[in-house]
Amino acid sequence: GVHLVALSLVVERDLPLDRAARIRSAAADRLAGGFTWLEPPAPPAPLTIGHVAGASDTAEHHARVREWAAAVWSSWAPHHETVHRWIDWLVAASPPDLAAALPLARESHGST
Fold first, then answer.
1. pTM across the whole model
2. 102/106 Cα distance (integer angstroms)
3. DSSP assignment of 70-99, as one string?
4. Is a pLDDT exceeding 70 seen at residue 97?
5. Half-sphere exposure (CA, 13 Å, Cβ side) for 98?
6. Reported confidence tier of residue 41, pLDDT bands at 50, 70, 90
7. For residue 5, which phi and psi values (nearest 5 degrees)?
8. Are 112 and 83 in contact (CB under 8 A)?
């Protein structure tokens, strides 16, 4: 669950990775009992970490990481609404400094 929260924020809202890591940690603390099991996608994402390994330079590496992340997030499409609810709950349950770091509310969610 916490990884899907971070993935949603990075892919859909272009959240910087350092902020996503902080939010992932906070989500683990605040939502520990609130996550429900989500059945993994079948088939899994069409891109694997091997896609990233083929990069020839730093810029291509970053681009391939983004492509891989987007493919993984897309493969979880049946669960996007659940992850968005977790994000909304996290915003509501967070102290002001963390809530300010989170993109707010349902209307700011990207495509599902």
1. 0.79
2. 12
3. HHHHHHTGGGHHHHHHHHHHHHHHS-HHHH
4. no
5. 19
6. very high
7. -60, -50
8. no
Q: How many other C-beta atoms can be found within 10 angstroms of the C-beta atom of residue 60?
A: 12
Q: Could you report the per-residue pLDDT of 53-76, keeping only the tens digit for each?
A: 999 999 999 999 999 999 999 999
pLDDT for res 101: 63
Residues 6+ apart with CB under 8 A from 111: 12
Query: Cα dist. 10→33, 42, 43, 91, 108 in Å?
Result: 23, 22, 22, 16, 13
Classify residue 72 by burial, with Cβ atoms within 10 Å: 0-12, 13-18, 19+: buried
Above 90 in pLDDT, residue 100? no
